[in-house]
Amino acid sequence: GQIRRTEDGGENFSTIFSESISGEDALLTSPYAISPHNPNLIIAAHKTIWRSSNAGQTWTNPNSDIINFRIQHIAFSPSDTNIIYASDCASIYRSENSGLSWDTINVSGIPRGCISNLAVHPYNPDRLAILNRRKVYETTDLGKNWQDISNGLPDIVLHSIAFQNGTDGDLYIGADVGVYYKGATMSEWVPYYNGLPNVRVSEIEIDPCFNKIRAATFGRSIWESELYRRSDSSICCANLKIPIISDFNECGNEAVLLRTPTLSYPHGYQLNWYKDDIPLNWNADTFLASKSGIYGVQLQAAFDEACNSRISETNIKIDSCGYRACSPLNPNTILGAGNYTKIGIPTSAFIRDRMVENTRLIVSISADIETPDNRFQILDEDQHILGLSSNQYQCDGYSQDIFEITKSQLEDWMKDDTIFVFLDPISTHIDPNKCSTNEVCGELHLTYSSTTSVKDSPGDKTQIPKIKINPNPAYDYTIIKFENQSHRNNKLQIDLFDINGKNVLSAKDIFLNPEHQLDVSCLTAGVYILKISDKGNSILSSQILLRSHN
Predict the structure, then answer these.
(1) How many CB atoms are closer than 10 A to CB 400?
(2) Cα 413 to Cα 411: distance, rounded to the nearest angstrom
């Protein structure tokens, strides 16, 4: 009588419903159903009906006083999110508000017996088919009228009934001997064994998307067959667009791990990744982008390509941290005029979080200069002279001058996330008519840290976690060690991904205090991305190279 739930793919289970919760005696197998419209809504029963709207965390027992006998069956309406049915041996109950309250429906048109199963029509929530031991009855008007539709069935006990979605109302029955089928326009049932052994069928499930019926037997395993006739596959189309989550940084990406937010997709679908509109034939939940490009992911329907989802895309740049801006040269730059040319290089908080001590400022000039010895003074934002430009000018060529800048200098210059650089002519005259370009460009090349700043706890000062990996390249093992105090006392998860983005190694509840030896002897030689996560949040990624023993 228990319901147990897993949140990690079956590795661990917890009990969410039991006799201790309901206070009622339960059978060994008690009925429950999860809403096809809302996975958090569960209706379960021991003797009476219980409802949970938060995936089993809490339960309520709405108007249970109307229940006559032990509830045996529960069914949600596929077409109406609010309507649910339940039955005991003698009565049928209906809720029109997602299980908050229940009413009985008329069953006076059914001969006295015991209701052994029920099914709700896929498109009409007022249409039911029920089994009454050896007979089948159907109503199309919520029990006002019932019709015996048992013609063609042998006199045997009937156990399970199901409508076929994607049809006008085709029905299947699992009986003491085999499976029976009745189309919406047929007047009689026909046996549908199709290789099924002569055995009791206690439950049947219909998979209209893949044109399958599956039958659970008593002691002879589970059997599968094609349906008597195909469903309209358009009912299986999911109007979805799967977003892409990535650890893409504003710059400084050696490789970017792309992933989708969930491991569960609609029935009959699988992922496929794209790069620049070309299928990669990769359907794992993660992909490691090692080259720049437009990456996309799509849910593809195995049953009908017309049901494929829209493609989600993200632009990934694999590059160093470079920030660049250009300005046209002031055409009036003559000696002594003080006619500066000013460039503003955009930066961001990302630089402040990631840069380390050495940063290069590259100033390039492309211009038509009268004489090769004409030069510019290059000044920083505070009008301090950084140096002189080189004098190697050619038409439509350029000069390039590199200046080393400290982290503290760069931080001082960052005003409104822009760094300004000025060029002051010493003895220069520009003729804008001779060359196609007359401009000056500035570019920051950062020596950056490959980690992301993470707060240890609210109110703590942000620390950038830094690790040391040794040996790297590695053979059988490598040692991972934090070089500062960030996250040392936290339980962490370590994952290794290959160049295709496949998770090839995972270690949970790891303390890097002071270090952890990671066994990589089972992996082949190649390049891998190491990711360290704290409570599901990625805090660091780095590259590991594994060498071959040959």
Answers:
(1) 14
(2) 5
Cβ proximity of 41 and 95 under 8 Å:
no
Tell me how far apart the alpha carbons of residues 387 and 362 are, in angstroms, rounded to a whole number.
12
Tokens representing residue 10 in the block: 């079956």
Torsion of CA 300, 305, 311, 317, to 10 degrees: 70
* Residue of 151, 369, 362, 355 lying closest to 251 (CA atoms): 355
Distance CA 43, CA 58 (A): 12
Tens digit of each residue's pLDDT (9 = 90 or more) over 426-467:
655 655 556 666 777 777 665 544 333 222 323 333 344 567
CB atoms within 10 A of CB 309: 20
Q: How far apart are CA 423 and CA 400, in angstroms?
A: 13
Q: Is the pTM of this model over 0.85?
A: no
Residues 521/524/528/534 CA torsion (nearest 10 deg) = -40
* Cβ atoms of 359 and 443 closer than 8 Å: no
Per DSSP, 412 falls in state: H
- Distance, in Å, from the CA atom of 24 to the CA atom of 169, rounded to the nearest integer, reads 37
Report which DSSP code applies to 462.
P
Higher per-residue confidence, 420 vs 37: 37
* Residues contacting residue 503 through CB under 8 Å, at least 6 positions apart: 286, 495, 496, 497
- In 3-state terms, what secondary structure has residue 361? strand
Average pLDDT on 291-310 reads: 82
- The answer to whether the beta carbons of residues 258 and 287 sit under 8 Å apart is yes
Confirm if 265 and 271 have CB atoms less than 8 A apart.
yes
For residue 258, the cross-strand partners are 246, 287
- The number of angstroms, rounded, from the C-alpha of 323 to the middle of its chain's C-alpha atoms is 32
Beta-carbon contacts of residue 113 (< 8 Å; ≥ 6 apart): 132, 133, 135
Q: Which DSSP letter does residue 233 get?
A: G
Distance (Å, rounded) from C-alpha 46 to C-alpha 100?
17
**Interior angle at CA 418, CA 415 and CA 423, nearest 5:** 105
| Cβ atoms 56, 39 nearer than 8 A | no
Distance CA(131)–CA(171), nearest Å, equals: 12
pLDDT in tens, 67-76: 778 888 999 9
Where b means 16+ CB within 10 Å and e means fewer, 113-125 reads eebbbbbbbbbbb
Cα Rg of the chain, angstroms: 35
Amino acid at 373: D
Coil, helix or strand at residue 465:
coil
Q: Residue 164 and residue 169: Cα distance in Å, rounded?
A: 7
CA distance 468 to 462: 20
